[in-house]
Amino acid sequence: MTVQVRSLTRSIWIGVKGRESKDLVEKKSAINLAVAFVTATKHYLREEYDYDSEDLVSLIGHLPRLSTPSSTLPLDAQTSNENVTALVTQSEMTPARKKSLEKLMAYDFPVPTNIPIELSHYLLAYISYIQDNKLAEGFIVSSMSNSLNTMVDCLTSFERILRTPIPLAYSVHLHHCVWLYMLSLPYQLVQNLHWWSILIVALGSFCLLGILSIGWEIENPFGYDDNDLPLDDFCKVIRREVAVITSHPPPDPSTWIHSPKNHPFGSRCDINAIELGEKPVTEVCRLFQKYSDSPHTWVNINVNNK
């Protein structure tokens, strides 16, 4: 997902035409939604469904809230009024809200909703807007669409991990087998090892119980435990990268290609790009051959010099 957000940001900021203030605001707003998609995915995988999260509200606070059903909880748990009531504390409800409790939607309180999917709708709407107004070439529009599709595909893969834990029957059976084995192990060792059997049983218990604990830990890698994925760091890195990119206007090739500081041949030749562009084509091609890194070209040059 990180790769696709970087690609989408690059395509929007550089590939979409327009350098006026209005154009830059549009591009910045769309890029903010790409960053919000990552942040919303983090909260979604942690079953935090609040639109007003501290790191999210500044990015999507201006958007309408669609209350899209979540894929991380059964649908019955999201549509039942009793379940909604259980998720809302009395202190959070005003008298008016209490009267209309039976009509509560996902945007009223932090109940399950798929915010990343909602953001993908807005991003696709922006891509369609770009295409309809011919603000980008076809390959740029295709690249943005592919990046968005891959981001949604990543979200679906994360949901698959979250919704497919170790089967309960397998987990219970494994625990029973491990505990029965550990309880019977001392009786098998004590006759031959005597007091040493205590140490052996302790080491065996450490290994087997450790494997069971690891299984529980890796079952859901999206939480706040020390062994879970550092989702907060991922989001912070993406947000910082995007902020740096959008803090500068889209680069104009003429400003960095035709620059006196640009030496196409590096330290091997003092000719800069401006001077090189003023030379005849044959002379430029000869310099390309002369300063090429290909050893075969060097041999030909030496032969011709002789």
What does this structure look like?
Helix content is 65%, strand content 0%. The protein contains 15 helices and no strands. It starts with a helix and ends with a helix. 19% of the residues are buried. With 306 residues, it is mainly α. The model is unreliable at 80-94, 96-107 and 295-306 (pLDDT under 50). α1 runs antiparallel to α8 and α7 (115-132) runs antiparallel to α8. The longest helix is centred in the middle third of the chain and has 26 residues, at 138-163.
The N- to C-terminal Cα distance equals 57 Å
Residues in helices, as a percent range:
55-70%
Shape: elongated
Q: What percentage of the residues does DSSP assign to strands (E)? A: under 5%
Radius of gyration, taken over Cα atoms and rounded to an integer in Å? 30 Å
Per DSSP, the total helix count is 15
Q: Topology of this structure?
A:
Layout: H1 2-15, H2 21-45, H3 57-60, H4 75-79, H5 81-87, H6 95-99, H7 115-132, H8 138-163, H9 168-193, H10 196-219, H11 231-246, H12 253-256, H13 273-277, H14 281-290, H15 295-305
Features:
65% helix, disordered C terminus, 306 residues, mainly alpha
Brief synopsis:
With 306 residues, this protein is an all-alpha fold. The protein is built from 15 helices and no strands.
